[in-house]
Amino acid sequence: MSAYLALAVSVGVLAVLDTWLYFGPGASTAIAGLVWVSFIAWGCFFQSGAGTKGLMTAILGMTFGALVGVAAVLLASGPLAGLGDPWAISVTVGLGAFVICLASKIPQLSVIPASVYGFAAVAGPIALGVKGATEALLPVVISIVIGAVFGFVSELLANALTKKA
After folding, report:
1. Sign of the alpha-carbon torsion through 34, 37, 132, 26
2. How many domains, the chain?
3. What tens digit of pLDDT does each residue of 106-162 get?
4. Does the pTM of the predicted model rise above 0.90?
């Protein structure tokens, strides 16, 4: 089959499995509802060049961004809380973006969007009140790893399904 169709088939089939992991009978309550983080990491894997490079970029970059996001929330609700909600949150998001951009000098963190995705991914469960800042980190990182691995496997499967010339 063509590479185009093979990728569509592999991603489609594996998307069923990925989603089932989050909502099926054996789903972990620790990561319940974070399937969207897995899909962001999956997309980040391909956006980062796929292969081993894409796998490492998605996992390291998104995890770093999630750590920066947790730090921003802790700053906004701690030392900078006196600024009031709109300002404390705004200032810490700006600081987080600043740190993410500076960190891009490190080769493993050079894909700024990967870190931004992680920052945003950890903000979701915190902003929705589902998890506190530190409680959100581990489930988000687990979902990042799951999504990046699904990206890697979908690439391998698509390559296996592609008709060779």
Report:
1. positive
2. 1
3. 999 999 999 999 999 998 888 887 778 888 999 999 999 999 999 999 999 999 999
4. yes
